[in-house]
User: What shape does this take?
Amino acid sequence: MTRPGRYDRRDALAAMDPETDYVEIYRDLAGLEFPWDIQQALSLALFRTYAVPSIGRLLAGTGEFTGRVQKRYDDTALILESVLANGFDHVEGRAGIRRMNQMHRSYDISNDDMRYVLATFVVVPLRWVDRWGWRRHTEVERVATANYYRRLGRHMGIRDVPATWQEFGALLDAYEGEHFGYDPGGRAVADATLDLATTFPPTDRLPKRAARGFVLALMDPPLLDALGYRFPPAPVRRAADALLRARGAVVRRMPVRTEPYSVPDSPNIRSYPQGYDVRELGTFPACPVHRQDTAV
Assistant: This one.
């Protein structure tokens, strides 16, 4: 049996229609083409949300992202995975969206902040892969990624969702330029998430100080400034960049992945060794703040 070529899947995805096949395309990107890169980028995207004071302050106020950061990380990843793995119309996908909406409606979150967070899911992985992935995204893949999250945004009741990946990028840059700023709550949540990140492979093999330095070296100056972190020395930033570029070059020469990456089986997910029900993930605040968002 002939083994698939390194770029065969890219070519197959390029022949699909990103206006109708966006779920299948994005599922292949996240599970087969760039699973590690997208997971790392989504983790980095979390830090960007903490740098918006209204978001960082809210997350710190719940106590969940400082006191139970591992569980919150796991719940977020598993809820999003229930939608991607099963699809928007599957009972488990709908359950994941419903659970997400129930949590968000329990807090007073502005539509602008919700829309910005959605933009980080689109833009940060696209930029990460184009810089450090084993190949760059094709235009079909960029369009499909935007369309996937546009549909997720509609199910979440988010208004005025950008229409294209370029518009998502413009929204993210403009929102950060206007709203990035230091807040003690955002910094506390960032510190807790940074400590957690040092326990994930491969940084768990480094001394904690070196692991923290590696993660910080992947952040840009506006993000570091907003979170109140010192800018890593130039040699550290160059080393982190070189390591990720070298990884991309190695992956380019590796055999093609044929088994999709599984978020529930990831060593980073640790809260549910006996399994889980997506309907029981996340937080259940006692006194919800009622909002007008659409439920599934």
